[in-house]
Each structure stands twice: as C-alpha cells, then as structure tokens.
Amino acid sequence: MPRPPFRATTYHRYAASLFGIDGVILMGHKIVIPAAFQQSILNALHAVHQGLGAMCARAADSVFWPNITTDIARTRNQCAQCNRSSKVKRHTNTNQCHPS
C-alpha cells in the first residue's frame, strides 16, 4: 500500500522532540525515516527473520516514524517463512514492541 507524501501534521505531536542536523531530521537519537524509505528499512529490520521482538528492538535503537510498531508487526505477520517456522500461533499483538 503506497504511503502518502510527507505531511508535517503527521509529526506535529512529536514537534518538541524533533530537530535537524545537516539536513537529517532526528527524534532524540533516532533518525526520522521519510515514507519513501520506510519499506526499505522494514525489509532490513526483517531480513534475518528474528521475530517481532527483535525487529522492534533493532528499530528502537536507531529509527522512527509514526506507527512504526504497527508497520513492523504487519511486516512480520505477512512473512510466510516466519509463519511457517513459528511455533506459536500467529498474532498481531504489538505489545512485544515498546512504542518509540
């Protein structure tokens, strides 16, 4: 599903935490990822098929965009390889991720 273009209103609630350095927007120590690059980041986070918790942990260290946790869970849940190898019933519980 294509993402809408960048909208400043999407980030309004985070305004107090956003700042820029050399053209890169940061929220705290995390790089704010534009919508055009989010799928690439999701693919990189998921590349080793470590599961939802590990994907969230990797993301929490370095990247941010609104609803990232939901996007990570969707990416994991849509992976046939992960679903085949999972010993637990597939779920969409994002509580394994701590909101960033």
Query: Over the alpha carbons, how many angstroms does the gyration radius reach?
Result: 14 Å
Secondary-structure element order, N to C = EEEHHEHH
Sheet bearing the most strands, described? 4 strands, mixed
Question: If helices are DSSP runs of H or I spanning 4 or more residues, what is the number of helices?
Answer: 4
- Placed side by side, the strands forming the largest sheet appear as 1-2-3-4
Unreliable parts: none
Distance from N terminus to C terminus (CA atoms, Å) equals 23 Å
Look at the structure and give the CATH class.
Answer: Mainly Alpha
**CATH fold-level topology:** Endonuclease III, domain 1
* Overall pLDDT score: 83
Beta content = 5-15%
Number of DSSP E strands: 4
Helix content: 25-40%
By CATH, the architecture is named Orthogonal Bundle
Which class of secondary structure composition applies to the elements?
A: alpha+beta
Question: In one word, what is the shape?
Answer: elongated
Number of domains: 1
Pfam family, one: Integrase_H2C2
Protein name: Integrase zinc-binding domain-containing protein
Organism: Elysia crispata
Domain Integrase zinc-binding: 33-86
